[in-house]
């Protein structure tokens, strides 16, 4: 597992996230197709918090502080507690990108990380550092899919009399 491969993927993912956010109207970024579905802005705020408080932090504990409990996090409750959908877009995007840059710099400066170092998660069991860093990249991809889906639904909403089936199946 090469750190440069990991950091390159994380950097590309951040650019893709930025590209899906920039150029959207404020209305589109805050729009929720359903009360239970996050808006684009909520996804972005979630990504910023996860970057700072989850992946980098928990990987650090796993690699450098074996036996130490991970800090508790509750991402689903943060959406309302932190009023994600009321946050400033520019500040939220900058916070995510800044946190991602810090993560990439931190990863590149790790001295011989032991990707087999593990943490015993109380719900899902043993998680190696390799599992965490791979999940970090996968987390980005899941949210890129979510942002793309929100774009698709917004397009359909803006063009209710137009068909999209010619484009192909979602």
Describe this structure in words.
- With about 170 residues, the chain is mainly alpha-helical.
- It is built from six helices and two strands, in the order H-H-H-H-H-E-E-H.
- The chain has helices at about 5-20, 25-30, 40-65, 75-80, 90-110, 130-160; strands at about 120, 125-130.
- Strands 1-2 form a two-stranded antiparallel sheet.
- A hairpin with a 3-residue loop joins strand 1 (about 120) and strand 2 (about 125-130).
- Helix 1 packs antiparallel against helix 5 (about 90-110), helix 3 packs parallel to helix 5 (about 90-110) and helix 3 runs antiparallel to helix 6 (about 130-160).
- The longest helix has 30 residues, at about 130-160.
- The two termini are about 35 Å apart.
List how many beta strands DSSP finds. Answer: 2
CATH architecture, please? Answer: Up-down Bundle
Can you identify the CATH superfamily?
dinb family like domain
- Uncertain runs are none
Structural class: mainly alpha
The share of residues in helices is 55-70%
Query: What's the end-to-end separation, in Å?
Result: 33 Å
Count of DSSP-assigned helices:
6
The figure for the number of domains is 1
What is the H/E string? HHHHHEEH
Q: What Rg, in angstroms, do the CA atoms define?
A: 18 Å
